[in-house]
Amino acid sequence: MRIETRLPHGTSYLLPILGGEVRLRLDVMPPAPIAFGPPMTDGPHPLLLLLDADLHYPVAAGLSRLLQVTGEVPPHWVVGLGFEGGEAIDVYAERRIRYFSPWPIALPAPYPQNWVSGQGLRFRQALVEEVLPFIEATTQAKRSAFNLIGVSLAGLFVTRLLRDAPTLFRGYGIISPRLGDQDRRMIREFDGLSAGWLPLDTRIVICAGDREDVPGTDLESMTANAAELAGALQGLHGNVQHHVHPGETHASVLGAALSRSIRALMALGEQPK
Asked: According to the UniProt entry, where is the signal peptide (predicted)?
């Protein structure tokens, strides 16, 4: 069902999944041509799917459009995946904890202790069977050039998906992944994989700020954990970028990290360093 869009140039939809258990909000931004450049080809064009769109879609869509019209990246679709009602911060927080955590997680105060977590595998199945077919039919984008970005808890979801379904996307952007305490097991799950586990052309970019760490919280070792994840993946695959953004916190790193991720995932030929 089409609904009022968040931004100019785009369209938005509500998509029920999991038998109507929850409705996703999908915000779709079409490719943009280079300003004063040659006409844009008909496509099909690549696509960038952004999780956590309730907070991050306006930033990602704006940066993507800027990079396209200035010719730094080729034309591509941007689709933001959020939740119905996700403009309310409590709805946004509850849904992402429920559906992006691959296993039950401990919820620190002030989160309500009755919130459910650990539904990531169910959500991944819905992503494969319901969401991606809808996006492909709606955009006519190039399915072999779909890319996925997740931030924080959604970054953990993307990491888990990369480990279990490495061919589902062409590229994976992992920004400030939640890998503290119990979730550090995710890094260890790449141990023992062979170099051929991932197609050679798969792109991976991992970003974090150098001021993310907050002692005594889930953000205690964000920067170091992201670096450890990058090291584990670089030992298996040659196309892994790792960027630490100076002076950026867990919140402020978003702009720099999204810009870097879009450039890395969408670049033609040699990727920017």
From this structure: none
From CA 80, how far away is CA 24, in angstroms rounded? 10
Q: How many domains is the chain partitioned into structurally?
A: 1
Q: Let me know if residue 30 belongs to a domain.
A: yes
Q: Domain holding 38: CATH number?
A: 3.40.50.1820
First to last CA, the chain: 40
pTM listed for this prediction: 0.94
- In terms of phi and psi (left: phi > 0; alpha: psi -120 to 50; beta: otherwise), the region of 43 is left
Q: Quote the CA–CA distance of 105 and 173 in Å, as a whole number.
A: 22
Cα angle value 172/178/183 (rounded, 5°):
105
DSSP state of 41: P
Residue with tokens 């008909």, as numbered in its chain: 42
